Amino acid sequence: MRKRLNNGVNCTPTKGCPVEVTLSIIGGKWKGIILYELLGGTKRFQELRRALPTATQKMLTLQLRELEADNLIHREVHHLVPPKVEYSLTPLGASLESILTQMKAWGERFQAEHHLSDFSNLK
């Protein structure tokens, strides 16, 4: 099965469509938001928790570990009491800035055009 996008790029699921590859790396409920938050600079774990109040600590930790494993974020542990952990974008993660800002702009337009104030009816 072959998908043909309007820009002439072929996406073959068996060969790995570049769009699918990208979505497999940054997809997930919280990864895009985490990456977007880190565009503003280094953040501590609790700052990210406050930015994503409905994410559980376990899920946030899992998503951060996956982003770190994919070399999109850097985790810096400062051996203090109490321990201090900071997250920042790697150069690879920072290369997603234009994608993330375009996604934000698209989402804002979609919300405005559909008169959405939240996502409860988009399930």
TrEMBL record:
Domain of life: Bacteria
Protein name: ArsR family transcriptional regulator
Taxonomic path: Bacteria, Bacillati, Bacillota, Bacilli, Bacillales
